């Protein structure tokens, strides 16, 4: 920066810095880095002992993202001078500014100043961009972790509902020998109303329902029964709540990642922070609107499933059965909602990151936040959206998105899925050996050697003994192979929709 005498103040380099100061800073940086690395290593070992494979993969994605950010920071540091020497006309350089009246006390590159131009980005701007990228990555991981933790805590309350399905009272109330009208069931009374067939009335009701209760007990029981009936033998003692927990962890592995399209959106968000767009009036509300639209859609899907069942028959025997199908979802893709949740969480994270970065670099009252209402809106939206998403939309999403045509491999614990894959690979090798004319190994021997299968009796039922997420061996779940072959074709042709 230019001094009062018109000269240029020289900054101290390593040539004029005491070696003890350099060594001290270097030692502190190494110590902090080692603590972070060891902390991540211990967390990975803990997740491995608990057999939380999805969370372990999410942690590996976070490490990959940190490494990518490290490369970006390194490139910005190396090419800082070259970026600053890229000259552009002043008319272009003064367009789409983030502030209406920016300060012009920064030193300009002599090369550009001599030609009557200005730098594409000053050296100070490159350094500030590095800090912004760090804030963005930090808040994205923090927001995703906080949201999914709140959702998991809310879903833990469903354990009482799952335990209730094993009581005599529940079995008596769902006696398969009893006939009743659909509109007389608890699920029918909730969803078969005068507004159900009218889209203009169903949408506002679905919008309000997501804000009051989100997931109701009768909805959980009905969707659970429909899922088990569609994919297993009716009356199977399947732990649906643990399955939702595993599915949510697998979704977290997707959401926490920083994909290419996420980086593209980050570029667009930075661009729309120009003063001419007046982004403070609309940009912070986009994640909230998208979140409410997603919740309205999920509530509407539950009502549509009830209407679909009622259109086929007005009388049921036993428990009302809803039919899972992809056509209830946008574009016939249940996973589209997962990418929408990803975008919502990222955009909210960007708002928090940009606000925190501008506060850190320029103070709370800067050209980025001149008005008090702007500060209040950004803080309120940044806190409201993770809470609303975690406690309201995310549990609803975890339940409803399982009602697609296919089920994910989270239906089995990780070790059982690994056993199924090994068994399938051995069966393929045996078939290949048979075609070549060699004597294949016995399939029974392959099954007996698989740790995921305890017994294979003459009734073709597989007893899957596995260890729960808490490390405690659970009771044996019996899944009928004949029923599975009827629903999915065959064990050999078993395909997972969301691997």
Describe the structure.
The protein is mainly alpha-helical and 499 residues long. 60% of the residues lie in helices and 4% in strands. The chain has 19 helices and seven strands. It has helices at residues 19-49, 53-78, 80-84, 90-93, 110-114, 123-156, 159-164, 168-173, 186-191, 199-209, 217-231, 240-255, 260-271, 286-312, 335-362, 372-400, 414-436, 443-449, 481-488; strands spanning 87-88, 118-119, 179-181, 315-317, 455-456, 461-464, 477-480. The strands form three sheets. A three-stranded antiparallel β-sheet has the order 5-6-7. Helix 2 (53-78) runs parallel beside helix 12, helix 6 runs antiparallel to helix 12 and helix 14 runs antiparallel to helix 15. The longest helix is centred in the N-terminal third of the chain and has 34 residues, at 123-156. The radius of gyration is 29 Å and the shape is globular. The two termini are 56 Å apart. 24% of the residues are buried. The model is unreliable at 1-9 and 442-499 (pLDDT under 50). This is MLO-like protein. One of its GO terms (cellular component) is membrane. Keywords: Calmodulin-binding, Membrane, Pathogenesis-related protein, Plant defense, Transmembrane, Transmembrane helix. Pfam families: Mlo. It is found in: Membrane.
């Amino acid at each position: 920066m230019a001094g009062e005498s018109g000269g240029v103040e020289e900054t101290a380099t390593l040539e004029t810095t005491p070696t003890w100061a350099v060594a001290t800073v270097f030692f502190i940086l190494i110590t902090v880095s080692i603590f972070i690395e060891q902390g991540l290593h211990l967390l990975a070992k803990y997740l491995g002992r608990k057999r939380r494979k999805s969370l372990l993969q999410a942690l590996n994605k976070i490490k990959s993202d940190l490494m990518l950010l490290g490369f970006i920071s390194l490139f910005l540091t190396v090419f800082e001078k070259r970026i600053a020497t890229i000259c552009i006309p002043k008319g272009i350089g003064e367009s789409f500014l983030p502030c209406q009246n920016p300060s012009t006390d920064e030193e300009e590159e002599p090369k550009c100043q001599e030609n009557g131009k200005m730098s594409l980005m000053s050296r100070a701007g490159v350094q500030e961009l590095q800090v912004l990228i760090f804030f963005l990555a930090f808040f994205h991981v923090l927001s995703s972790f906080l949201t999914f933790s709140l959702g998991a805590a809310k879903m833990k309350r469903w354990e009482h509902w799952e335990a209730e399905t094993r009581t005599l009272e529940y079995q008596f109330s769902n006696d398969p020998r009893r006939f009743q009208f659909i509109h007389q069931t608890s699920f029918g009374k909730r969803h078969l109303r005068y507004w159900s067939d009218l889209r203009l009335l169903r949408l506002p009701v679905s919008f309000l329902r997501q804000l009051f209760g989100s997931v109701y007990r009768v909805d959980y029981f009905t969707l659970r029964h429909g899922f088990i009936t569609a994919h297993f033998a009716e009356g199977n003692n399947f732990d649906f709540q643990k399955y939702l927990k595993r599915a949510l962890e697998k979704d977290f592995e997707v959401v926490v990642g920083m994909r290419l399209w996420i980086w593209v959106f980050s570029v667009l968000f930075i661009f729309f922070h120009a003063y001419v767009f007046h982004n403070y009036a609309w940009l912070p509300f986009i994640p909230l609107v998208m979140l409410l639209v997603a919740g309205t859609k999920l509530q509407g899907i539950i009502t549509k499933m009830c209407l679909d069942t009622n259109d086929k028959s007005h009388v049921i025997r036993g428990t009302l059965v809803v039919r899972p199908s992809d056509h209830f979802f946008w574009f016939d893709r249940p996973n589209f909602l997962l990418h929408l949740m990803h975008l919502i969480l990222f955009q909210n994270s960007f708002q928090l990151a940009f606000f925190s970065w501008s506060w850190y670099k320029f103070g709370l009252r800067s050209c980025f936040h001149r008005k008090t209402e702007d500060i209040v809106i950004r803080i309120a939206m940044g806190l409201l959206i993770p809470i609303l998403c975690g406690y309201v939309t995310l549990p609803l999403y975890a339940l409803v998105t399982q009602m697609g045509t296919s089920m994910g491999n989270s239906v089995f614990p990780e070790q059982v899925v690994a056993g199924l894959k090994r068994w399938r690979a051995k069966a393929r090798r045996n078939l290949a050996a048979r075609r070549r004319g060699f004597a294949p190994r016995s399939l029974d021997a392959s099954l007996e050697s698989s740790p995921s299968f305890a017994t294979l009796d003459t009734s073709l039922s597989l007893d899957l003994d596995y260890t729960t997420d808490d490390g405690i061996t659970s009771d044996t779940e019996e899944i009928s192979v004949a029923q599975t072959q009827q629903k999915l074709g065959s064990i050999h042709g078993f395909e997972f929709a969301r691997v």
